[in-house]
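DM from R.C. (forwarded with permission)

"hey, sorry to bug you on a friday — could you get me a structure for this? deadline for the figure draft is monday and I only need the backbone to look sensible"
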Amino acid sequence: MFPLFYSNIYNTFTIQNFQLNSPLEIKVKDQFLSFADPQNLVDFFPSGGERQTWVIEKDEDSFYIKTSVDRWDSAKYLGSPNKNDQVFLYTSKTRFTKWNVQKIVDDKYRIDYIGDKFDPRDVNIVVARYKENVDWVLPYDDIAIIYNKGPSDLPFFSNSFNIDNVGREGHTYLHHIATRYTELANRTLFLQADWFPHNETILYGIDNYDKHLPVQPMGLVYLRSINVPPKEIEIKVTRRTHYGFKYSVMNVNGDHDYIGENYFYDWGVKANIETYKKENPRTSRISLFDSFLYYSKFPRTLNPLPTNYVPFTFCALFSVCKNNILLYNHEDYMNIIKELIRLNPQGGTNGYVLERLWLWLFQYRE
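My reply, with the result:
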């Protein structure tokens, strides 16, 4: 392990031939500022090279320091928004990646972090984890809450909690809402621990959370390796933000068919529909959505949106502002938890239905 970069310790740097918007090396004594891969750690390395080359940009009141090469997860800008002052890489020029660079003498420069610090009252990132690697969470330590249903092997995170391994990510999300109902952040991002296969641009979404819709879909695909959705459908439904984040929303009907011009046949969908109808024969003549809501004792009068079709984003990745969560009472969320695990401790087909109801539940509107 090489020395890590903490903004409250390292201030004076050597930058030879300083020039904005051009690759350069930044040193402390004989150590080069560097970035680790694949983690987003920033450290110091004893020799120069590709990972030790940076570009300094400037706007009216701030400097931004980024890697000179593209990285696998697009994280490239230095930031220090956690209270421990450790420096990590982030995707974007935001209020969390601002610096001041001031020349002292010759090739000596003072570099100070002047960006904002994270506020957990403003935003939380809820991470549903079993055994996945969650090193990506470290740059967001002050605002992340990891609910761990697997091995107790998370010693480096400020907010990790072991909870019962039931209900998959749906239970995790509902557990967070139910246990923190009176102290929710202004916005909560709900994410599975291994999001990359489902949306490689998630970090852009995290770093720019204050640009989100009140209910923000964050899924993009299920798995490209099995062509779900088909490439031509992905192209049509993908939405691109100006800050680099991509996501998709598709409409599904009460039998979970993708509807309209974005229809495609999904064998997994059909199998789950048949299983659900066998498990719930009394409601086989109504849609799966209405059935789930009926058994959940959900107060339909509180949600005016239709259920003949609902908006859906892949893999239960989304963010929600507090006001939309508080549309319903604490008891309503407890009832959904009970229904989720009523027939199967891991959720079974109920978990599958709930995954498609999240955006509807929080009243997503385009």
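R.C.: lifesaver. The first strand starts at residue 12 and ends at 14.
me: no worries. The domain at 12-113 is CATH 2.80.10.50 (Trefoil (Acidic Fibroblast Growth Factor, subunit A)).
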